[in-house]
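ok trying again, last paste got cut off:
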Amino acid sequence: MTLPDVHRPQRTSPTSVAPDLTRQEYRRASPPLFASALLDRFTRAHPALPVVVYLPIGIVLASVAVHEQGWSSTAGLAIGGYVLWTLAEYWLARLAFHKIPPGEWGALMHWRLHGVHHEHPDDPKRAVAPPLMSLPFAAVITTIAFAVLGTGRGCAVMTGFLVGYLVYDLLHYHLHHGRPRTRIGRALRRRHMLHHFSDDTKGYAVSCPWWDHVFRTAPPLRKS
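nice, full thing came through this time. structure:
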């Protein structure tokens, strides 16, 4: 498949990038998002960081859930938590990452949240969510799960939710910077590149493409 080497005009960066970069260098560039060098450092993440942060948390959650709920109940609730993640992945991408709020402030916030990734999709340090972004969201969802379900069931649901998140983040990095060798992997990469370089109003889901079909936002997968 041949994809157009373009980027959407509304993604224009509010920060400067050297004008003499090649297209490949520009796509890999990593412009600052904040004036503070210390704060800007937290907007980038090594691809292993989500695993380092969330795998121990997931193990603790699963251990508590199994202790209080047993294996079978924990497994069922964890599956429910994974499904919940896939819905969160789709709607976060569609509503939070791809809707630009009005005004200059809204455009800047959108740029910092996701626009920079579309402008510089090959930046290896912005292909997974930094903890600065993911931890507050995880804390809110965990608090809600515990309040609604209690500790044991909440831990089980959040185990599946975090597994889904890790699959998404690592898969997203692989689609941008790896070489998928399976038929499914190549298909996922093709549809995600269509999202980036053809139409970013289609193909919001990365790890759960079925929701794009359910909500009628699936990209047209033209044959090469």
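cool. Confidence is low (pLDDT under 50) at residues 1-12. The two ends are 4 Å apart (CA to CA).
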